[in-house]
Amino acid sequence: MISIDYDPKVLKYEDLLDIFWSAHRCDQINTSRQYMNAVFYHDEAQKKAAENSRAGAALKQGLGVDEVQTTIASVGKFTYAEGYHQKYYLTRFGEIRDILTRSYKTEKELADSTVATRLNAYLGSGMKRDWAIFIKELPDYGMPEELEKALSKAAVRMLEGAK
To answer: Beta strands of the chain (E only): which ranges?
Structure first.
């Protein structure tokens, strides 16, 4: 499960639902609760929006609402996954992961970190995102200078591997 913090003045819950359903096969069932397909809501308005979006997704995929295997449930208590599950793609880059681990006091801070999340996405994309933009932004994050050096080495390594 992921938890997304967002500003409803900038992005609406319904927008997040649209993104979710556009990238999700709602007719797939996963029998393991650990990997269940679900949309979570915080209040009755979000519950209604989630139910409406489920019906829309079913229609777009040519399914009846009763064929949708995606659960809609109240958030309840959010629990962070163990550290080794956090920022999966960073685990392939030990030097970068070590620098980030030293930069944040707790695993929760690392998990919530914007820079670690962005790095995980860049590294997970195989450098297909605009790396120059990220490197330009990096000083704004207040990270140690050694991180930029480690990232440059990782970029070279990834780009050479892509050849």
So the answer is: 38-41, 71-74
Rounded average pLDDT over 10-36: 85
Residue carrying structure tokens 């790095």: 119
Q: How far apart are CA 58 and CA 2, in angstroms?
A: 23
Contact call for residues 73 and 38 (beta carbons, < 8 A): yes
Of the candidates 80, 72, 81, the residue with the CA atom closest to the CA atom of residue 38: 72
Region 114-135 average pLDDT: 77
Which of 88, 96, 102 lies closest to 149, judged by CA?
96
Confidence (pTM): 0.63
Measured between alpha carbons, how far is residue 41 from residues 9, 45, 148 in Å?
Answer: 18, 8, 38
